[in-house]
Amino acid sequence: MITDAEAYSLGSTAGTEQKSPGLAARDLPDQSGEEDRAAPRRVAGLDGLRGLAAVYVLMFHCWLLTFAGFPANRGPAWTGVFMYGRLAVVLFLALSGFSLALSPAAKGWRLGSVAAFARRRAWRILPPYWAALLFSIWVGYNVVAASHHGPPTARATVIYASMLQDVFWAPTPNGAFWSIAVEAELYVVFPLLILLRRRIGAFGVLAFAFVPLVVHGLLAPDANPVEGSNHLVVSLAPVFVAGVVAAGVVTASERIRRIPWHWPAVATAAPVAAVIVVRGSVWTVHHYFWIDLAVIPAMVFLIMSVATGTAVSLRRLLDTRPMRSLGSFSYSLYLVHLPIVMIISRKLVRPYAGRGVDAFLLTLGLGLVLSITFAWGFAKLFELPFQRYRSWREVGMATTSLLSATRRRNQVPS
Q1: Helix (H), strand (E), coil (C) string for the chain
Q2: Which of 29, 5, 7 is nearest to 330 (CA)?
Q3: Beta-carbon neighbour count of residue 358 at 10 Å?
Q4: Helix axis angle, 233-246 relative to 288-308, nearest 10°?
Q5: 59, 220, 236, 354: which has the highest count of C-beta atoms within 10 A?
Q6: Residue 402: its pLDDT value, please?
Q7: CA atoms of 306 and 245, how far apart (whole Å)
Q8: pLDDT digits (tens, 9 = 90+) for 112-161
Q9: In terms of Cα–Cα distance, which of 123, 132, 142, 126 is closest to 175?
Q10: What is the pLDDT of residue 38?
Q11: Contact predicate 83/60, CB 8 Å
């Protein structure tokens, strides 16, 4: 039987439950290179940042499945640092908007063919997502259900396969999938955002995204809109928009690029962190609508500092080989980690260690090792080929070539 904490975060009736992210991300394997081969193929440090965000989501789920009572922290105070998986969504979406906008920014904020953009996004996102969906459904039916509503239904399978879970509610096969649908909806409006950026400028686009949402928030009861388990794209769209606008820094003047953006990141993050510490986790989770908006500047300045290289030590750390490797399959890690962590928690750890710190540390240790290992293999099959090749024909040719080479190596001389 799923606990209240798990129901709140793993795909049930409360939207913040599923808010254990995103995504995403995992969004772009080569950042701007996916959209324009002439653009820079990789911005150093962003892959590492994306990888760390995916690992934090995994740690959040380990915490969530170990301690009951979310959004209250029933564990030791130090475990509270693992409670805010929703904030990783903010970073994922900002990274996604930033990465996708790099190429249009380099071309005077022109996207090119909308149809070609849609095909590239579908080619990049859908194959690993559908493979992870099948894996999650299999786990839900045969090992452990991801929702207190039981195994995923046929309706849920159709809705999640169509990426409509942000529009229509259904029992989730994987509580991390909610943000994938949010991103898919944002991809639909991305061409419009690029057009608006060219026509009305950066501040105009930001006002277009932020002003209506702030007015909506202020007019809500107690000035705090209540979120459900879907229809989340509206409240999270400004995060993506801010990332899109921030991509302009890579083509800005040298004077702008040399600004030490890490200091504004620290300055804007500090008040938000102070509010979270003072008000506590329960208040924070129930006010994510405003916390998301408040943390956007810090997230965007962080990305800008890494992209421009002004945070030298941080960028060097994020661009180490282990961080780049982790980032290269962070989308797969995000997609598949939760069913693995749930199996570990419910089938291996909880029957013997119950709940508490020991159970958390054991779940965390096993979850990191098994999830990262599985995600690496999963990415080799379902993610990385769709980064390297642009069509089924190319994938088929590469597979045939690999099989032929393998047969030649295995042949024994007569």
Answers
A1: CCCHHHHHHCCCCCHHHHCCCCCCCCCCCCHHHHCCCCCCCCCCCHHHHHHHHHHHHHHHHHHHCCCCCCCCCCCCHHHHHHCCHHHHHHHHHHHHHHHHHHHHHHCCCCCCCHHHHHHHHHHHHHHHHHHHHHHHHHHHHHCCCCCCCCCCCHHHHHHHHCCCCCCCCCCCCCCCCHHHHHHHHHHHHHHHHHHHHHHHHHHHHHHHHHHHHHHHHHHCHHHCCCCCCCCCHHHHHHHHHHHHHHHHHHHCCHHHHCCCCHHHHHHHHHHHHHHHHHHHHHHHHHCHHHHHHHHHHHHHHHHHHHHHCCCHHHHHHHCCHHHHHHHHCHHHHHHHHHHHHHHHHHHHHHHHHCCCHHHHHHHHHHHHHHHHHHHHHHHHHHCHHHHHCCCHHHHHHHHHHHHHHHHHHHCCCC
A2: 29
A3: 12
A4: 20
A5: 236
A6: 64
A7: 16
A8: 999 999 999 999 999 999 999 999 999 999 999 887 777 888 999 999 99
A9: 132
A10: 40
A11: yes
Indicate the angle between helix axes 85-106 and 288-308, nearest 10 degrees.
50
Nearest C-alpha neighbor of 196 from the set 136, 292, 110, 255: 110
The ranges of the chain with pLDDT < 70 are 1-41, 398, 402-403, 406, 411-414
Q: Residue 348: how many CA atoms within 13 Å on its side-chain side?
A: 15
The span from the first CA to the last CA of the chain, in angstroms, equals 61
**CA geometry: angle 185, 171, 220, nearest 5 deg:** 55
- Return the closest-CA partner of residue 376 out of 413, 414, 340, 412: 340
pLDDT digits 0-9 by tens, 59-107 = 999 999 999 899 999 999 999 999 999 999 899 999 999 999 999 999 9
What is d(CA 20, CA 7) in angstroms, rounded to the nearest whole number?
A: 12
Q: What is the rounded CA–CA span in Å between residue 39 and residue 41? A: 6
Percent of the chain with pLDDT over 70: 87
Residue labelled with tokens 């998986």: 85
